[in-house]
């Protein structure tokens, strides 16, 4: 089989790898049918990551189950499934409490698409081994488009987690979104669907702002800190100066959710945050537990994640097309 491999800045290529085989009865082999780039992949391809190439890329996809071990009960060959980005067993103490990104059965931060906790390959591959099929795989509900839901492995389900619990606790919250990629746009869609009274989306890209306006958000190219204005702020830029701006806009006891990958250091207004009593969470998400709820919201018809998809491209175009700057390209393969 082939796996798409990051080899240098702005450069990826197909490399041959052995076909994966089942190593236990708990495993499955899947074939991605719609895969997309996470917002952080753009930073990696631009050379801003902290891992040296080469390594297999990709950690967001909908796949077709090809083969399952004897002990797998939740999926069967032929099922369409969401493959979460992190490797997790589902039974260790961390997994049982929802910390699936910190599974103790595998090395810390074991994941697809980056060799942080071992080499698990990437989801831009012809075939993928899933070591804990029952714990990891989530069947795609009937009626959902695999292209629209290719990001459910991470960005779409993460976006649900960034806003849905907060709007449940505080209906009609005022939401600020400071973003550069798909996460911010998904957040706009979800926040308005779940009853936010006001959503302001800040992004220098006019095409992104146009999409956000289609979701009912107000938009701005940039914004000065507006003290005590927003109950919830979502920052997804990867820039510490923008994170600092975000927390300065919070109302007393407000919450800032940061989904940016901050590869470079910076300063935060800690005294102001202390005096305002805000909460800041910066976290690589434990996404597996949120995928069913995020898919259910998509199935409700109250949101439209497919509008964020910027390009639908053939699987064979991956090496040339992935390094190009696109908002949310989805690469599809004939589903035999």
TrEMBL record:
Single GO molecular function: metal ion binding
Domain Alcohol dehydrogenase-like N-terminal stretches: 26-141
Cofactor (UniProt): Zn(2+)
Annotated InterPro entries: ADH-like_C, ADH-like_N, GroES-like_sf, NAD(P)-bd_dom_sf
Pfam family, one: ADH_N
Domain Alcohol dehydrogenase-like C-terminal: 183-283
Keywords: Metal-binding, Zinc
Keyword Zinc applies: yes
Tree of life domain: Bacteria
Keyword Nucleus included in the entry's annotation: no
Protein name: Dehydrogenase
Organism the protein comes from: Streptomyces spongiae
């Amino acid at each position: 089989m082939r796996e798409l491999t990051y080899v240098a800045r702005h450069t990826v290529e197909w490399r041959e790898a052995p076909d994966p085989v089942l190593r236990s009865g708990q495993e499955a082999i899947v074939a991605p049918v719609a895969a997309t780039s996470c917002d952080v992949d753009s930073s990696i391809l631009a050379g801003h990551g902290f891992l040296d190439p080469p390594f297999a890329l990709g950690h967001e996809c909908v796949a077709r189950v090809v083969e399952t071990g004897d002990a797998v009960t939740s999926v069967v060959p032929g099922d369409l499934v969401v493959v979460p980005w992190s490797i997790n067993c589902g039974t260790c103490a961390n997994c049982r409490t929802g910390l699936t990104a910190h599974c103790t059965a595998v090395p810390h931060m074991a994941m697809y698409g980056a060799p942080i906790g071992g080499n698990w390959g990437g989801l831009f591959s012809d075939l993928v081994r899933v070591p804990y099929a029952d714990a990891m795989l989530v069947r795609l509900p009937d009626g959902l488009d695999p292209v629209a839901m290719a990001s459910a492995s991470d960005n779409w389900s993460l976006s649900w987690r960034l806003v849905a619990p907060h709007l449940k606790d505080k209906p009609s919250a005022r939401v600020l979104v400071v973003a550069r990629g798909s996460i911010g746009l998904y957040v706009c869609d979800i926040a308005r669907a779940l009853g936010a009274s006001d959503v302001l989306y800040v992004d220098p890209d006019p095409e992104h702002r146009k999409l956000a306006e289609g979701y009912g958000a107000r938009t701005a190219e940039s914004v000065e800190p507006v003290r005590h204005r927003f109950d919830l702020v979502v920052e997804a830029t990867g820039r510490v100066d923008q994170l600092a701006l975000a927390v300065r806009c919070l109302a007393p006891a407000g919450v800032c959710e940061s989904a940016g990958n901050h590869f470079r250091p910076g300063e935060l207004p800690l005294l102001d945050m202390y005096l305002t009593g805000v909460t800041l969470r910066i976290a690589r998400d434990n996404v597996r537990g949120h995928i069913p709820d995020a898919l259910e919201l998509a199935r409700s018809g109250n949101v439209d994640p497919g509008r964020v998809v910027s390009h639908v491209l053939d699987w064979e175009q991956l090496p040339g097309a992935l390094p190009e700057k696109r908002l949310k390209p989805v690469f599809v393969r004939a589903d035999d």
